[in-house]
Structure formats: C-alpha cells, structure tokens
Fold this sequence. Notes:
Blueprint: E1 9-15, E2 19-25, E3 30-34, E4 37-42, E5 47-54, E6 57-64, E7 77-78, E8 82-87, H1 90-105, H2 115-126, H3 132-142
Antiparallel strand pairs: 1-2, 1-4, 1-7, 2-5, 3-4, 5-6, 6-8
Amino acid sequence: MKRTTETQTIVHLQDQADVQCSLIYGTPMCIVEEEGARKALFSDGELVGYRIINGNREHGFLFKTGQWNSRQKVPGVSPVVTLMVDAKSRYRSEKLQEMLHMIACYEIEMTRVPDHFFLRFNTLLEGRNCSAQAMQNMIEKWCK
Length: 144
C-alpha cells in the first residue's frame, strides 16, 4: 500500500538591497521568521507566483506546489514543484503579473483555470506577440 503524505513547500522571502524575493500570487499557510530569514509555507496543490530581483535582473515564476508529474527546481523554493510559467526577464515577469491581474479582473477563480492555460501562456511569453489583447483572447478562450 502506497502512503501519501502532504508536504509543505517552502518559499524563501528576502528584501535586501541586492536581492529581493517576493510573492506575486498565492496565500501561504503561514510566514515563518527564523534566524533572520523569512519563509512562506504552502500546502500541496497551491498555485504560487514568485519573483526574484537581483540587481537589474528579474525572474518570475508561477508554479504548483506538491508532488506532481513533472517537477522542476525553482531557486529559493523547496522541494521541487511543477513549473507552469518561467518568465526569464523583467518584461516577461511584468507580463506574468499583468496576466494574473487580468484573470482577477475577470473574477475567475484560479482553481478553475486549467493547467494547460498557463503552459500556453508560457509559450506566448516566449513569442513576440504577448500583447494585452493576446492575453485577453487567451483568457476568453480557455478560462470562461
């Protein structure tokens, strides 16, 4: 018999002059402060938006916590997670935040957004036409 145990995903938060790590989406179960470090704890199956700013470089992530099929390592996050969106620049990170905001404006619950929507959005981010209109069209096609 296979035992299933729920794990907690730890997301490191940091706000220093050289490096900033913050949540852009998701509500943690709690935030723990120990030895000068802040950590947000999430239960399995949660959708989390996370941003790292290191000097002039910015990297945004959207991932699901827990033990899922394909698991990737995200800096500052443990254990491994299912990466949905990997926004590798400031522009793409801002577009990710814009998309999350648009979904909220449409009053769509994130639990109702299919996983493949975010995978398609990640592909849109990699292309040249990641306009507000293109994102709106995606929402209307896949989330309503």
